[in-house]
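Hi all, long-time lurker, first post. I run a small reading group and we've been trying to get comfortable going from sequence to structure in the token notation. Rather than ask abstract questions, I figured I'd post a concrete chain and ask someone more experienced to write out its structure so we can walk through it together at our next meeting. Sequence below, copied exactly:
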Amino acid sequence: MTAHTIEFRPRPGPVTAEPVASAPGAEAGAAARRGFSRPTGTSRRQVALEKRIRRLTGMAIEHFAMIEDGDRVMVCLSGGKDSYTLLDILLKLQAVAPVRFELVAVNLDQKQPGFPEQVLPEYLRALGVPFHIETQDTYSIVKRVVPEGKTTCGLCSRLRRGILYRVADELGASKIALGHHRDDILETFFLNLFHGGKLKTMPPKLVSDDGRHVVIRPLAYVPERDIERYAALAGFPIIPCNLCGSQPNLKRAETKAMLRQWEKDFPGRLESTFRALSQVVPTHLLDHALNDFAAVRADGVARADGDTAFDAMPLEPGKSLAGLDKGGSEEPPDEADPD
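-- Answer (accepted) --
Happy to help. Here is the structure in token form:
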């Protein structure tokens, strides 16, 4: 089977996506990388893991209506394990999806010292994916503005977001896909809970703060541990970030460590917490904007959602997460792929 061809409609504007390479054998290579054939030597563990990630990603896309027919999806590629996995899985789903959509990979080269600028273009050309590299020296801005020892994440994120929104406009992208996964969503929830005093997290789909773009997170259901294993087995050319990820004592790093310890000590706690985010009971919270407490009166009518202090039985998965708890993260044993 030949590689799936992504045909871009002409778009005005100064930014263009580099076309797919047409070197001899490129189509066969791209086909193999996109999942049309099983590479020689691929373990059963890797195949099972890919199927699980594809299933969870497909579920998230369906549950939150992330991708529609005719969409042009701009996949933000940082060079980390999450964004590599996102692009890889979307390419595989694109080949079998019931709707037609286009993918274009976009990387923001922030001019970090020592950044291997040739890695992503070489990888994407070999993969046969249209891409655009946007070069903006945000590294110097962040280092100049943020005092030494202070967290750079906030400013860096705002600068990146503004640039990516502009590039999405110029490429004619209808959706912006980010590589945030289940653990990112949980970490953000607890960061807001512990440090922001809000019940809030990253939604799988939302409108950007400028009101002009739809941002999606197709890996919303995928645990980070699965992405780590998949990236290692796939051999993605990971590019480390020397600006934000290397900072010590970040609150997010502390929260990540807490969740990983929970996962080790209390199996199932993270799954239950994540499921709770889709089973909100507004009447049992304290937000006056959601409930008119002054109007609450006893009327003698029994209520299914009346006060029982605590649910006696575990909550059943909500409709939006139906099937999420099936399959677990177990993988078939593979003697050739030791733990």
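A couple of things your group might point at:
The two ends are 34 Å apart (CA to CA).
The first helix runs from residue 26 to 33.
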